[in-house]
Amino acid sequence: MLLHDRIPPLPAPHPARRLAPLWPVLALGAALGACGGSDIELPAPPPPPVVVDTACQQSTASGAVVVGSGLPGDPAIPEPASGYKLGAKPVVSKGYMVVTANPLASQAGCEILKKGGSAVDAAVAVQAVLGLVEPQSSGLGGGAFMLHFNAKTGVVQAYDGREQAPAAATQDYLRYISASNNAYPLPTAASVVTDSAAFNGVRASGRSVGTPGAVRMLELAYQDNGKLPWNGLFASGIKLATDGFKISGRMADAIALNKASLLVDAEATAYFYGPGPDYAPKALGTLLKNPAYADSLTALASGGANALYTGPIAQAVVDKIAATVGSGPTAIALTPGLTTMADMAAYKPVKRTAVCTTYRAWWVCGMPPPSSGGIAVAQTLGMLENYYMPGFGPTSMDAEGGKPSVLGVHLVSEAERLAYADRNKYVADTDFVPLPGDNTDALLSKDYLRGRANLIRFDKSMGVATAGVFPGFVPQGVSDAEGRGTTHMTIVDGAGNVVVMTTTVESSMGSFRMAKGFLLNNQLTDFSFAPSDAAGPIANRVGPGKRPRSSMAPTLVFAKAADGSKGAFVMGTGSPGGASIIQFVTKTVVGVLDWGMDAQQATSMINFGASNSATTGVGGEHPNVVVANNGGGDALVIGLRALGHTVSVAAQSSGTGTVIKTQLNGAAALVGGADPRREGLVLGDGLKP
Ligand code: GLU
C-alpha cells in the first residue's frame, strides 16, 4: 500500500561519475562545461529531502491512500449503502479543500486544485464525475445553484442554473394532458387521487423535464472565475467513463429501487441492467463503462456548453422528452413534454444577488429565488437571533455531534415552521412573481422577524404556523411539494475562493429517461401542480420559461468585520434533501456558530427540524437517537413530545458537506466534514512539511 507518496530518491551517484542530467546541480555542471570542462567530477551530493505529499489522498490510521487505487482504506472501494457511518473525523488542510458526495468526484476536484485550479475549475471537474458515478443525483441533464466567494474582491455572486419550463408550458402543464383532456399526464392513471401517486406518474412523463441548466451555469461561472483551460476540466470524467468505475452502494440501491421505471427507457435499461428477460440490476462493485457519457463530455470539453444546448446532444434530449411511448422493455404510453430545440438554445443561466443577512457576529449568505433556501435559512436564523442560542446547546458532545437539547430543537423547529409558512406562500421565481415588497427586505427585516420570533412559546409547539401578513399584497395559495435526489459540493481553492454548489436531477434517477449517457431531470415537479387554491393563485404555479421553486441552500458564512461589514470567510455548507435541505443547513450553521462544533460534528449532528406541519423530525438513522418504540425511550423525543411536538424518528438522508476556515496552532487551516449518511469524502492538500 502506498502510505506516503514520496518523491523517489535519486540513485546514489558514483563519487566520480558524470553528472546525472536531472541532478539539481546540473546547472552548475553545465556552466562549468560551458567553460571548457567536459566530464566534471563532483563529490557525492547530500541525500535529497523526503517530501511527504499527501495532497488529495485519504488519510487512514496507517498513512495516506490514493483515492481510486483500490488499496485497503481506499474510500472509493464500493460498500453497501448504510444509514450512517460511525466515526467520521474532521479533515484538516492548509491551503485548499473539496467535499463532495463521492470519493472519485472529490478526487477529480482535488487534482484540479492541486494543479492551481480555481474553485470553479474544480466544480466543473466534480460535476463531470458526479454525473457519471452518482447519476441518480445530478448531472448534465439537471440544474444547480452556486454561490461563489471571490477572495480578492470579497464579492459573493449567486449563479442560477435552475431548470426552466418550456415556452409551451401552460399553468396546467403538470396536471392536464391538454386543454381538452383534463387527465394527468401519462403514465399516471387518470384515476389517481393521492398526491404521491400523481407526483410519481407525472414525474415519469415528459412534462416533468425542465430545460437543463447546470452546464450553462458552470460555463458562466467559469467565464468569470476559471483559471485552468476548460477542456482539461473534463479529463477525469472522460477517463472514468471510458475505463469504467465501480458502482457504489447508493448507486446500486438506486438502480435496484427504480428498476420498474427505468425499464421504460431503452438507454437506461441497457446501461443499468443485465440482458432480458431478467434485466438484473447491475450490482454494487460492478465495473461500469459509459462511452456515450465520455462522448458527451468530450463534446463539452471542446465545444463548451453549446455542445449540450445545440446540435445532436440537444436533439437527443428534446427527442427523449417528446417520447410518446417507452423505448425500453416496458413500452408504456407517455405524455410528451413540449421542450423544443429553441428552448434548449435559449436557456440562460442568471447571475443573481445573494441573500446576505447578519446573524449575531456573522454574515450568512444564501441562494435567492427561485430557490427558497436562502430566504428560509435567513428567516430562521433571524428569528433565532432573538434567543440566546448558545444557551440551548447540546446536552452532551461527541464526535457525532452529541445530543441536541430539547429547547434547542424546539426553538429551531418553531422558527423553521414560521419560515416555511412564508416560503410556501410567497417564494417562487421572482422573475414572474414578486415577493412582498418586491425584494427580500420585507421578509428578512429584523423587525418583522422579531415579531415572528415572538410567536414562539417556550412551553408549547405551535403545530402549524401561519404565514406573515404583508398589507396590500395579493392573497395567495400555498405549495410545498418537492422530491429528493440531489448532491452538494463545497470547495475552497488555494487562493481562498469558495464555491458552494447544490446540483440535482430532482428525484433519484430524475425522470427515468436517459440521453447520450446522462439522465434527464424531473425538476418541473417542484412546481405546484395546481395553479391556485381557495386562497388565490399559487406563486409557484407553472408558467412558460419559469423556474420551479427550490429549497437548495448552498450557504456561505463570514465574520462580521469591526465596521459591521462582511469580513473573512468562515464557513461553507449545503446539502441535498428536498424541502428538508433548509433544516439540514440550519442545524449545521447553528451547530458551528452557536454550539461551537467542528465541521464534521455539525455535519454529523442529529438532523432535526420541521417544515410547516405539526411533525418535528429527529433523524433516527443517527446513533445518538434511541429509535426503539418510536423514540419512546429517547430523552430528546420525550421532551419534545411533552411540548406538544408530533415527533418522527424516521431516518433522514442528508448529504451535507462543510468546510470551516479556522486557526490551528496559530496558522490558518481548513477543516472539512462530509455527511456520514452518504458516500462523501473531504480531500485537501494535507499537511506538508
Ligand atoms: N428538487 C429539490 C430542490 O430543488 C431538491 C431535491 C433534493 O434535494 O433531493 O430543492
Write the layout of secondary structure elements.
Blueprint lengths: L25 H9 L22 E4 L2 E4 L24 E3 L3 E4 L2 H12 L4 H15 L9 E7 L6 E6 L33 H10 L9 H12 L9 H9 L1 E2 L2 H9 L1 H4 L3 H7 L14 E2 L2 H13 L2 H4 L1 H11 L19 H6 L3 E4 L1 E5 L2 E5 L6 H12 L21 H21 L14 H4 L1 H8 L32 E7 L5 E7 L9 E2 L2 E2 L12 E2 L2 E2 L17 E6 L5 E8 L7 H13 L5 H6 L3 E2 L5 E4 L9 H4 L3 H8 L3 E3 L8 E8 L2 E8 L6 E4 L5
Parallel strand pairs: 21-22
Antiparallel strand pairs: 1-2, 3-24, 4-12, 4-25, 5-6, 5-13, 6-9, 7-8, 10-11, 11-18, 12-13, 14-15, 16-17, 18-19, 19-23, 20-21, 23-24
Helix pairs in contact: 2-3, 3-5, 3-6, 6-10, 14-15, 14-17, 14-18, 15-21
Bound molecules: glutamic acid (GLU).
The site of glutamic acid has 15 residues, from loops.
